[in-house]
Design brief:
The chain is built from 7 helices and 5 strands. By secondary structure, it is of the alpha/beta class. The protein has one domain: P-loop containing nucleotide triphosphate hydrolases (Rossmann fold).
Length: 180
């Protein structure tokens, strides 16, 4: 099994984090890499009791998500974590839990994120129904030095650059093992 690594994919809500993670996962599977996606929304949905969005609940959620990612990485997985983690401290904590860690910023303009708004977060924030949306009423602290910047979730060049970084880490092999 290859060396494990945590790849934290951050960005505003609706930036394309999950889209980017799924594209990377598909490329990793072509290389028979041991990889998984811990999508923040999916993990949040299975936690019991469910965690809300207060400052304490978010801190607890990101701590849990980071520890789960580190656990899987220690078992040799490439762990893709598309999750906003809107405070740098959340991502720094995740980095501290596993030495092989990459931070990817999905840099999508706020107006584009608002246009997509599949979960209606921005609309709820504008109406006053939600006052906790990162990038609106709640802060979103952009990474100061991300390992990689993707311009939207479909950024093929960023996906290829990430695969090259994973190769250097020893997390994937150089060639596809699946027949063409």
């Amino acid at each position: 099994m290859s060396a494990g690594i945590v790849v934290w994919i951050t960005g505003l809500p609706s930036a394309g984090k999950s889209t980017f993670a799924q594209a990377v996962l598909a490329a990793l599977r072509e290389r028979n890499a041991h990889a998984c996606v811990l999508d923040g929304d999916d993990v949040r949905a299975i936690l019991s009791p469910p965690l809300g969005y207060s400052a304490t609940e978010r801190a607890n959620f990101y701590e849990t998500l980071a520890r789960l990612a580190a656990l899987l990485a220690r078992q040799g997985f490439v762990v893709l974590v598309p999750a906003t983690a809107h405070l740098r401290s959340f991502r720094e904590r995740a980095r501290s839990l596993f030495p092989a860690f990459l931070e990817v910023l999905v840099d999508t303009p706020t107006d584009e994120c608002k246009r997509r708004d599949s979960k209606k977060l921005y609309a709820r924030s504008r109406s006053g129904e939600a006052n906790d949306v990162p990038g609106m009423a709640a802060p979103y602290e952009r990474p100061t030095q991300p390992d990689l910047v993707a311009h939207g979730g479909s950024d093929r060049a960023a996906r290829e650059a990430l695969l090259a970084q994973l190769l250097r880490f020893g997390a994937v092999s150089a060639q596809s093992k699946r027949p063409a």
